[in-house]
Amino acid sequence: MEKEALYKDKDYLTYLEEFITENRKSRFEEVLKNRTNHFCIAIEDVYQLHNTSAVMRSCEVFGIQNLHVIEKRFGKHIDKEIAMGAEKWVDIHRYHDHQACITGLKAKGYQIVATTPHIDAHYLEDFDIEKPSALFFGTEKDGLSEEVMKQADTFLKIPMVGFTESLNISVSAAIIIQDLTNRLRRSSLNWKLNDEELLAKKIDWTRKSIKDIEFITEQFLLKR
C-alpha cells in the first residue's frame, strides 16, 4: 500500500492508536481543534537560522499547520533547539525558488499577502481575514524580494508609533499570526481542518510518537 493511501486509512489509525496512551490521543484531539489551513506562512531567504525556527514555533503555538520556506540563496536546516519540537507538528514545505512557492500556493486558492512596513498596505487590525491567505515574510534588512512584491495580491503591515520602522521577522510573524488566528477562531468562517485533513494529521502525529513505526506498519499491512 502506498504511503499516501495509508494516511487516508481509518483502520491504520485505529491500529496505531494501540501503541500510544489515551492522554496522547486526547492531546492530539485537543490541539487539532485549533489547527487551520485557512492561513499559511511563507518565509523568504531568512539567513539567520534561529529566525526560521522561531517562526515555525509561532506557527505551532498559534495553530498554523503549514510553513513554506524559500531557500534560494541560503540552504539551511531547522534549529531544533529554538523550534523546541515544533518541527514534528508543523508541515514544512521547502522551495529553491520564489515562483514554485507562489504558483503552488495560488493553485491551492491562497491569496498572496506581502508583509511590509514600507508601502501603502492594510494595517493589521483592518486586514480582511475571510480569504484563505499565504502570508509572506522577508528579512528585516532587505524585506521581501521584488518577485514576491510584484505578485502579491495585497499588502499588510503592523502599526508602529516609534522611531524604528521595522521589526525582526520572528517578532513580526508572531504578532501577525497571533492576531489573525485569534480573530479567525472568533469568526464564523469555516477555518478548521476538514475530516480528511484531520485523519491525515492524526496518523502523521501518531506515527511520529511510535518507536519502530516502520516495523509496526509492516505488521499492520501483513494483517490486511
Radius of gyration: 19 Å
Second CATH tier, the architecture of the largest domain: 3-Layer(aba) Sandwich
CATH top level label of the largest domain: Alpha Beta
Q: Helix content range of the residues, please?
A: 40-55%
**What's the rounded overall pLDDT mean?**
88
Q: What is the count of helical runs?
A: 10
Calculate the terminal CA-CA distance, rounded to whole Å.
10 Å
Q: What summary fits the major beta sheet?
A: 7 strands, parallel
Strand content: 5-15%
- DSSP strand tally: 7
Q: Could you say what the CATH topology of the largest domain is called? A: Alpha/beta knot
What structural category characterises the helix and strand content?
alpha/beta
Shape: elongated
Q: Can you list the strand order of the major beta sheet? A: 3-2-1-6-4-7-5
In sequence order, what are the helices and strands, one letter per element?
HHHEHEHEHEEEHEHHH
Low-pLDDT stretches are: none
- The CATH superfamily of the largest domain bears the name SPOUT methyltransferase, trefoil knot domain
Count of separate structural domains:
2
